[in-house]
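Appendix C reproduces, verbatim, an entry submitted by the partner laboratory led by Prof. M.T., so that reviewers can inspect both the input and the predicted structure.
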Amino acid sequence: EMCIRDSYMTMAMNRILNEIQEIRDSINELQMDMHEDRLAAADAARDRFLQAQTIRDAQLRRSSLNDAAGEATKAKNVLMREFKRLQEKIRQGSGRPFLELLTHRMDLSGEADEALESLCQIVVCVEVECAAWSALEEYQTMRKSMDGFVRFSQEQGLDDIGSLLLQGHEDDQLRLRDIASVTEGYELSLIHI
């Protein structure tokens, strides 16, 4: 009788453990879907900007450019919050900063890759914002967007991205070069504003 009870208890525990694992898998899948949605929002803003560029009616084009800039700003802010969350999780889990993980190709269950994807899409959003505001001849608003990105980069310890280009993995070098070119290009463009 004791063996039967132990056997039932073991089966019940296994069933509970399996259900817990299924819940964990569902949560991970949901988090990945949410991450993909955040990344897609940046792509949607870029597409909206590219479409707005082809509109012939000046008033409609201005309205569409304004909408594209708004979408880019919203997507950027969501991605920035996500990047901060991921970076803090990485710091807590490894005790190392995000850029060091990139440099040494270390990772924590993909969080560093997700953070890098978010960072790259943040850059896409900033580029869309700036291009839209420039097309609308709203240069001060464009400057505010770049100032915000530079401030975010500094607050997150990303102001030394250029030095990583020499050390990073080839794929990361390409993505980091894009990010670095935005901040360098901004510094040059301020002279012309």
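The mean pLDDT is 79. Additional entries are available on request from the coordinating office.
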